[in-house]
Amino acid sequence: MGSPGILQIGTVRSAVRTPLRGVPTVVRFAFASLCLSGINLTQLAAATDARADEKPFSLSAIVMANHPVNQCVPTKALGAGVDGHERDECARMFTDKNIAEMRSAGFGPLTYRLRTELAGEVWHWNPRGTWSNPANQCGYWISDDSLAEPINLSYGYRLPRRGNTIDQANDDGYSRITDGNEESFWKSNPYLDSHFTGEADDAHPQWVVIDLGASRPVNAIRIHWGAPYARQYRAEYWSGDDPMHLHADRKDEWRLFPSGALNRGSGGDESVRLCAKPLAVRFVRVVMSRSSQASAQISDDIRDRLGFAIREIELGSVDPPAPHSGRASSRNHFHDYIRHAPGRYGQTVIYVSSTDPWHRAEDIDYKIEQPGLDFILRSALTNGLPVLVPVGVLFDTPENAAAEISYLRQYPLEGIELGEEPDGQWASPEDYAALYAGVARRLAAMNPRLKLGGPSLQNFDGQLLTWPDTSGNRSWMTRFLKCVRSAGVPFDFFSFEFYPFDNVCTDAAPKLLQTPKRLGEMMTSLRADGVPAAIPWLMTEYGYSVFAGRHDVDIEGALFNADTVGTFLTLGGSNPYLYGYEPNYLEDELQCSWGNLMMLQLNPNSDELNRLSSYYGAQLITKEWMQPTNETHEIFPVSVSSATLTPTLSLARERRTTKSPVRVDPQKPTGSSAVSVYAVRRPDKQWGLLAINKDPMRTAQLSLEFDFSGARPQATFVGSVDVIRFSRDQYEWHEDGPNGHPIRSLPPAHFTQEASSFYELPPYSLTVLRGKFPD
Q1: How far, in Å, are 197, 493, 561, 641, 728 from residue 117 at the CA level?
Q2: pTM (2 d.p.)
C-alpha cells in the first residue's frame, strides 16, 4: 500500500459453509486459540436469561424533527447479496421455493459478490471463451460475450504464478516463491507496467515480503530469478512488529540493509551479503524496479515480458570465516531460515504486491462455484431491479472485464464494482488505482452511462493505513482517490464492508453496544480521507463477524443488523446490502459455537427452511419500520439519553450516606448506550421509530418527543400507536452443535396501545413504534 505499501488489515468477511472468506487462516487460528478457554455460550445464554428480570431503566429519546439527514426509497435501498459457495451447493440453495422464501424477507436490490477475487483466482464468468495461447490451452483468458446458452454456473482458476501464501477465501493455495520447486515461479501483474499504465517506468515498483515467523539473525539473501528479472532492487527490513497490521500511533518503517541496494541485477541466481554483522529481523522486503523485460519462452505476447519473476528465495545468514583457517568449507556457509514446501502450512509465509493472471485450463477450481450470471439476473431475486455486479481486477484482465459487461448489456445494471477488497489482498493504493483505471477506461468507452466504483474495502478499525509514500502519507484511500482523479476515470460510487467483531466466542452484549460507534468512526475516517459525500456510499456487505458463530443465528444477529442499517442510513449511507441472503448450514469455525451468516437455515434431511432471527429482523425493517413502497422516506437523527438511573441497593445506600456520585456498574451498559433509536417519516404521514434494546437483562422504558427547534412546540404521539416487537418471546435458539436450530421461531408481535408517557422495550428486543401527531 504505499509506494509500494501494505495496509492495516481490519476484520474481513467469511462466506460460511465455505471456509473463511476474507480472513487469513493464520488470523483464524489465533482467534481459535483465544476461544478455546472453557467458554460455554449455552451456559452464558442461560445465565443471561436467568438475570433478565432486573429492574427496568428509563430513557428519553428526542427526534430532531426539523430537518431530515437522509432520504431513501426502501424498495430500492435495502438490499442483500449472493455469493459463491462450495461445489453443488448453489443448486440446493437457489431452488424456486428457497428463492421465494428469501424474497419474503422484503429486500429490494441485489448485489452479486465475487469470491474468486478473494481466492486470488481468475474468474471464467462464462465457461465459453478463448485463450491467448489456444494451442496449449493456456495464457490469458477472455470469456465469450456472445449470447448463447444461459450461464448457470461459473468457476475460478488458480494462478500457477501465485505469489501470496495466504488468500482470503479457502486459503488452500501457496506461494511459488517458497514452494521448493525452481521450475515454478511467481510473476507480477504485467498490467502494472508502463506499457499499459502510460505512467513512468518506476511508478509501480513490485515487492515481496518474507515473514520468518520470528526474529532471526539475517545478513544474506539468495534470489533465484525467473524471467523477467529485476535490474534494480533493494532489500529492506521492518523496524517494528508487523508491517501487515499497521497502527496509527506507531511510526515503524522499512529500513534498507547496509548493503541492500543493487543497481545492476543480472538475473539467474544472485547471492547478496546484506550486512557484515547479522541483524535480528522477522520481516524482509525485496522491492523491484527496472524490469529486464525478458521472457522465459518464445512468445509474441508482450505480457510475458513485463513485470518481474522469482523462482525461489533463500534468506538467512552467512558464517564468518573461521580464524586462521584456509579451508573453503569453513567460510560462507549459508543458513537458510525459509521453509520451502508446496503447501499453505509447510512454507514460510510470503506476501506479494501483485500476481500475473496467466493460467491454464487444468487450473480450474471445482471446489467453489459462482452462481451463473444468467441464472441470478434472470431470477426473481432481482425483484425486477438493476443489479450491482462485479468485475475481476486484481487477478483478471481488463479484456475479460470488458467482455463481461458487454455480455450483460441484456440486463439493467445498477453499477459495476471493480474488484473486491484490494486492501485485504495487500495491493497498494497506487497499484489498485492503475488496474482500476485500466478497466474503467474500457468500460466507460463501451458505455459512458455505466456507474463505476468500488473498492469494497474490508472492515478496519481507526483508519485504513498503508506504508507511507515519499511524502509520508499513510492513508490508503486518500492516495487511491488521488490516483483515480489523476487518471481521469469515473468513480461514481464508494463501497465498503462492515464486520466489526472478530471474536465470536465471548458474550455479544458488550460488543453490540459498540456497533453505532464502530460504524460511525469508520465512516468519519473515510470522509476525512477524502471519500466524496456527494457520491453514493454503498455498504455492500455487513454482518456481526466474518467468523461463523452462535451470535449470527441467535437474536443478537437481528439486533446487530438493525442497528447497523439504522446507523448507516442516519449517517448518510445510500444502500446497505445484507450478507448471508442464501439459506445455509451451521459452521463452527473457531471451535466454540455453531452458527453462520444467514437468515434461513438449510435442513440436511428435508427441503424445509428454518427462519432465523435475522429473517424476522429484516422483515421488521423492510415492512414495518419503513413502508414497502417506491416512495421516499425521510430519515431524522435521534438523541437518546438516560432519564434516570436505577442504582443497585448498595449504590443507592452509598449515595444517601456519603452524598458521592452514583457509580454505574461497569459490567452493565448505561441506558443511553444500551438503546438505539432511528426515526423515519413515512409516505403515509406516520412516523416510524425503530428502537433496539441491547441490554440482555433489563427492560427499557422509553419516553419519546419530537423537537422542531422552535418552529413549533415539541410533540409526541397521540391516539393509537402501532407496536411491532421482536424479542425472546418470539425467538429462542437451541444450541446442539451442527444440529442447532430455533425451538421458537415466530414473527414479530403486532398490537396497538394508546399513546403513553413511555413505551416498554423488553431485554434484547427490536421494537417499531408507529404513530402520528395531533395535526
Answers
A1: 21, 20, 26, 44, 39
A2: 0.91
